[in-house]
Amino acid sequence: MEGSLLEPTLYTIKGIAVLDNDGNRILTKYYDKNIFPSSKEQRAFEQNLFNKTHRANAEIIMLDGLTCVYRSNVDLFFYIMGSSQENELILMNILNCLYDSVSQILRKNVEKRAVLESLDIVMLAMDEICDGGIIIDADSNSVVSRVALRTDDIPIGEQTVAQVFQSAKEQLKWSLLK
């Protein structure tokens, strides 16, 4: 194996995980069924990963043959896993894209409660970044623009007062222009 080149592949991401500050799973996606064939192995790996990283002051770890980059904020840990030969800068770029996208979606309120309340949009952002282990997008602004909810689609009962006034103002403006 030494001295030989590996076959190039688009499948760079082996998994994405968001864990809380106790190591419990909030959101995970694994793209390589050969590495973690069952949920039991996934959870054991997540627990081991959390135990090694929750007190560490680093951004990268090699664990069980995987390169893992991670970032923590308040009560969440974000992880991107790739193969041991994967470029760490690419993995870190995807991690930053995921974190920045979630931060923009949640209006800089990146904490467990906010992520759980907007889990559908966070999952959609995760799918926009990586599909089946292939990186689709690494720009957080384009990810957020594709997953952004339009205020027209939000039921009036779930809109804020400012959103209701803005919507009413736009409807009044359009009715006067007709």
From TrEMBL:
Keywords for this protein: Cytoplasm, Cytoplasmic vesicle, ER-Golgi transport, Golgi apparatus, Membrane, Protein transport, Transport
Species annotation: Phaedon cochleariae
Entry's localization field: Cytoplasm; Golgi apparatus membrane; Cytoplasmic vesicle, COPI-coated vesicle membrane
Family matches, as InterPro entries: AP_mu_sigma_su (IPR022775), Coatomer_zeta (IPR039652), Longin-like_dom_sf (IPR011012)
The protein's name: Coatomer subunit zeta
GO biological process: intra-Golgi vesicle-mediated transport; intracellular protein transport; retrograde vesicle-mediated transport, Golgi to endoplasmic reticulum
Membrane-topology annotation of the record: Peripheral membrane protein
Family as reported in the entry's similarity comment: Belongs to the adaptor complexes small subunit family.
